[in-house]
Design a protein that fits this description.
Blueprint (H helix, E strand, L loop, with lengths): L6 E6 L6 E12 L5 E14 L2 H12 L4 E2 L24 H30 L11 E15 L2 E10 L4 E5 L7 E10 L6 E12 L2
Length: 207
């Protein structure tokens, strides 16, 4: 389904009286758990004519260089009841969905494993050094976040030292960067293995 090319096509309206122009394309919606689902979306574009030849002429003018599918003339009804039989129910691309579900499951397992390794490393971590001196740190940037302050937007970093503890402070690199720097650190009141660093200098990447 995902390979279907968007196109215009001629059909009849709900009462099977007038030829109408519709547009069919691939669209997306959210399924269970926020999973994206693809489906065929059909939109009404214009009422054309009760005469097939006139309807085709108008449709070609409206479609321009876009693909246009002509279904041929039909035995239409007079003004009254009738139904064209058009199915506009969203059609789920099950193959694509299964592939996405499998990928989501793989990512979930990878994330769980990464969290497990990080948790075990943190349990074995040394506490943040208690000192008033500026000291050196070497480790990896775990993530960054833009924080709004009265002086504008500042980028902050969560950093994990090779000794295991984590500290939060100013920008020293992007996620995944291995860096070393010198800064003053303050231990958190709630966690001896977490702290806050200030005014980092002598930043070296790939340390």
């Amino acid at each position: 389904m995902a390979t279907m090319k968007p196109h215009f096509f001629i059909t009849t309206g709900q009462d099977n009286i007038m030829y109408t122009l519709r547009y069919r394309s691939i669209a997306w919606t959210k399924g269970e758990g926020g999973m994206p689902l693809s489906y065929i979306k059909t939109e009404h574009c214009a009422n054309l004519s009760t005469d097939y030849e006139k309807a085709v002429a108008k449709a070609k003018k409206h479609a321009g260089d876009n693909p246009l599918i002509l279904g041929g003339a039909k035995d239409t009804n007079k003004w009254g009841s009738g139904f064209s039989g058009i199915d506009t129910t969203p059609q789920v691309d099950t193959a694509w969905l299964e592939e996405q579900e499998q990928r989501v499951e793989e990512l979930r397992k990878e994330d769980e494993e990464a969290r497990r390794i990080e948790r075990e490393a943190y349990e074995k971590a040394e506490p943040v050094p208690v000192t008033q001196e500026r000291i050196q740190f070497t480790g990896v940037v775990l993530g960054t976040k833009n924080v709004e302050t009265q002086w504008g937007v500042n980028t902050k970093c969560l950093f994990q030292d090779d000794r295991g503890f984590k500290i939060w402070g100013g920008f020293i690199g992007n996620r995944g960067d291995k860096v070393s720097f010198v800064a003053r650190v303050q231990v958190s009141e709630d966690d001896a293995k977490f702290g806050f660093f200030k005014r980092p200098t002598k930043i070296k990447k790939g340390a």
